[in-house]
Write a structure and sequence with these properties.
The chain is mainly β. The chain contains 3 helices and 13 strands, in the order E-E-E-H-E-E-E-E-H-E-E-H-E-E-E-E. The chain has one domain: Sulfite Oxidase, Chain A, domain 2 (Alpha-Beta Complex), CATH 3.90.420. The strands form 3 sheets. It has a 5-stranded mixed β-sheet with strand order 3-2-13-8-9. Strands 4, 7, 10, 11 and 12 form a 5-stranded antiparallel β-sheet that branches. The chain has a 3-stranded mixed β-sheet with strand order 1-6-5, with no helix packed on it.
């Protein structure tokens, strides 16, 4: 069973309108970041302690591999994944967020971002991941480090993760600020992909959210 629906065994494994991808599609906006070495992630915002975590330190927080399917808003689902990563809650504990923090902004290399309610981030299957099925994530899929939020559409699983910002009040990220991204739940079947202008929007999943 996918960890993303582990608390809802009544749900089908494949959400309505999705098809199973045989290979992991490569989708992104703009260029794949060249990256910087050593890679590190900044923890900041509504926290008691601002932290810069090198990738190696994050990897020392490793949990057991996380079984989780992922679902792209453009209509494909990638099944039978075992993700290797550090639990979000373990990373969050190092920054000690303020009790008033309610939202998270995940920032990617290149200036991309996506906002997520903290209640969604604090699930046991949400993690900072660096490998899938025992293989390090390639750059085109967000390597060396991406966020994994498997119960939401994949654009919330921010690629090329360089910062996590805790927020008291919500604000839109890169993909959300000019679009009606009203639905994040793949099982709701209504994608809400329409731009404010009424023109169809390209699905941002698995791009540098």
């Amino acid at each position: 069973m996918s960890a993303a629906r582990g608390d809802r065994p009544d749900l089908p494994r494949i959400p309505p309108g999705q098809t199973v991808a045989q290979n992991w599609p490569v989708l992104h906006y703009g260029e794949v970041p060249a990256g910087t070495r050593p890679w590190r992630v900044r923890l900041f915002g509504a926290v008691q302690r601002e932290v810069y975590l090198p990738l190696e330190e994050i990897q020392r927080l490793r949990s057991a591999d996380i079984p989780a399917d992922v679902h792209c808003v453009s209509g494909w689902s990638l099944l039978d994944n075992a993700w290797t990563g550090a639990p979000f809650t373990a990373v969050e504990a190092m920054a000690r967020p303020l009790p008033s923090a309610r939202f998270l902004m995940a920032h990617a290399a290149g200036g991309w971002s996506t906002n997520i309610p903290l209640t969604d981030c604090r699930r046991p299957d949400v993690a900072l991941v660096w490998a899938r099925n025992g293989v390090p994530l390639p750059a085109v899929h967000g390597g060396p480090l991406r966020l994994l939020v498997p119960h939401l559409y994949l654009w919330k699983s921010c690629k090329w993760l360089v910062a996590l910002e805790w927020m008291i009040q919500d604000r839109p990220g890169f993909w959300e600020k000019d679009s009606k991204y009203t639905n994040l739940d793949p099982w709701a079947a209504v994608r809400g992909r329409e731009k404010q202008t009424g023109a169809p929007a390209q699905g941002p999943d698995d791009r540098p959210a």
